[in-house]
Design goal:
By secondary structure, the chain is α/β, with parallel strands linked by helices. The protein has eight helices and eight strands. The structure holds D-xylitol-5-phosphate and zinc ion.
Length: about 220
């Protein structure tokens, strides 16, 4: 399966977001972390900034909404031009209704799971979504270390997707680097978010290629 690389601009220079989006133009998606200081103890950016990022980004945007009340706020990110909008299962009141709304607006619909959130309740609903995001750290901050205990969940999600013969992507986010990406790929992930590993590299395009090669091997 082709590996898709989605660098997270959480590790970019927030005073130079357009420059830092252009730096990752060889990647598949630009991962944009929206945090509201309620669902997670950190605050990043909201819709006005997101709308401009979507206008200037050279590659499609993958929005990761770490926010309360995604049922209320997520559709606007699809309307702003996100190619993919991922909301947290723990925060959504009606995940299927929200996923259908995101798809109706032309975005891919993703459901994110914190490390301690089980995937099983969502396995019967795979036909309603385009991606499962298995968080490999607790959401909220970049630069944390990969939690190996999430690998069995990735495996179970991949097995269920294969069993159902669906094209649901499995994304991992948090602590993804040269040291960990192969473990996540072996477990069945096909979309890889990396923030500090990409933006902390001396040569950003080369790092994207290295991660893609390691994940595809
Ligand atoms: C964390 C965010 C991630 C973050 C990953 O809650 O969802 O996207 O940028 O950062 P790294 O790759 O540094 O762990
Ligand atoms: Zn993220």
């Amino acid at each position: 399966m082709a590996a898709l690389i989605a660098p997270s601009i959480l590790s970019a220079d927030f005073a130079n977001l357009e420059r830092d989006l252009n730096a990752i133009s060889s990647a598949d998606y630009a991962h944009v972390d929206v945090m509201d200081n309620h669902f997670v103890p950190n605050l990043t950016l909201g819709l006005p900034v997101f709308e401009r990022l979507a206008q200037v980004s050279p590659i499609p945007i993958d929005a990761h909404l770490m926010i309360d009340e995604p049922d209320r706020w997520a559709p606007a990110y699809a309307e702003a031009g996100a190619a993919s909008v991922t909301f947290h299962a723990e925060a959504a009141a009606a995940p299927v209704r929200l996923a259908r709304e995101l798809r109706r607006l032309g975005a891919r619909a993703g459901v994110a799971l914190r490390p301690a959130t089980p995937v099983e309740p969502y396995l019967d609903l795979l036909s309603e979504i385009d991606m499962i995001l298995v968080m490999t750290v607790e959401p909220g901050f970049g630069g944390q270390s990969f939690i190996d205990g999430t690998l069995p969940k990735i495996r179970r999600a991949r097995a269920a997707v294969s069993e159902a013969d669906l094209d649901v992507w499995i994304q991992v986010d948090g602590g993804v680097s040269r040291a960990t990406i192969e473990r996540a790929a072996d477990a069945g992930a096909n979309v890889f978010v990396a923030g500090s590993a990409v933006y902390g590299a001396q040569d950003v395009p080369a790092e994207i290629e290295t991660l893609r090669d390691l994940a595809s091997a």
